[in-house]
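For reproducibility, we list the full input for the 2-acetamido-2-deoxy-beta-D-glucopyranose complex.
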Amino acid sequence: MDHRLLISATFISLLSLTLPPEAHSASFKLINRCRRTIWPGFLSGANSPPLSSTGFELRTGKSRTLTIPKSWSGRLWARTLCAHHSNQTFSCVTGDCGSGKVECAGGGAAPPTTLAEFTLNGAGGLDFYDVSLVDGYNLPMLILPKGGSGGGCSATGCLVDLNGACPADLRVARGTHGPSVACKSACEAFGDPRYCCSEAYATPDTCGPSVYSLFFKHACPRAYSFAYDDKTSTYTCASADYVIIFCPPPYTSQKLVGARKDGAPLPLVNKTTMYIATDHSSGALSSGLVQRHFTACAASILSALLLFWPIILPL
Ligand SMILES: *[C@@H]1O[C@H](CO)[C@@H](O)[C@H](O)[C@H]1NC(C)=O
Ligand SMILES: *[C@@H]1O[C@H](CO)[C@@H](O)[C@H](O)[C@H]1NC(C)=O
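The corresponding predicted structure, in tokenized form, follows.
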């Protein structure tokens, strides 16, 4: 045998041992901390590898972990108030994907719905992720990167219940006098190009925040509040797995996330804006917006921390 061939063969096999591992295939752990069952839905981007599931039921307190193909991009969200009908179809009051089934099978979320958006192994090998309220809001959501090795790896999300606090002209109620179940974007509510960043307003220079998008941004500083809100709303991490929590307890998550100095320019929770549920006992979705100074809430935050820390630790 030719020595050179043998040497190069050895070299190549050594090289393959020392090469960095191939692009990491991530896992998403979805956790339902909402008081009711939710039905997560998934939509893969064009040219993105398909997922093993595009929608399933997730009962309160339960979690499910999915292996996500390398270089996957797409979005996920939670459907709420879903039902199987007697005519064999399935539909949801919020986040419905129009498939008539639990699997979304290529259907996207009907707005208004809080969205988690991901591009894994994108430019520079980084994962890009955000929580978007551009298409409105239906429930609080938190993305926590775990074990990342590059990028900022900040947590992002929207931790407050905005349904009760939603401005009247954006509110989606269940029935005429029912509780608020979602909060529309101004674009969806009014169709004005100024709010939609369309037509004459289709550039970052011509489309800015509105009083409506600022309602979302002040409550959830890291979430996307309008189409060109990129600078403070897109986060990156490399080779991470992701925990996605629906209805995270706001104060514990704040503690969890605050413990790591993640360097993000905006806080995950706006400490001067507290959203206090007005009706804890009945399980009603309504809540009232109470703005007050942080210290005034210190006692309730402390008790919430004590109450929830054993739940959040095993994440
Ligand atoms: C099935 O029933 C639901 C609820 O009554 C209704 O909204 C939906 O339009 C029906 N779908 C079909 C295909 O008949
Ligand atoms: C927090 O909320 C207050 C009141 O709505 C607002 O003036 C302030 O800009 C918000 N802070 C952040 C970081 O969004």
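The pocket of 2-acetamido-2-deoxy-beta-D-glucopyranose (ligand 1) is lined by residues 85, 87, 89 (CB under 6 Å). Residues 6 and 12 are 10 Å apart (CA to CA). Both points were considered when choosing residues for closer inspection.
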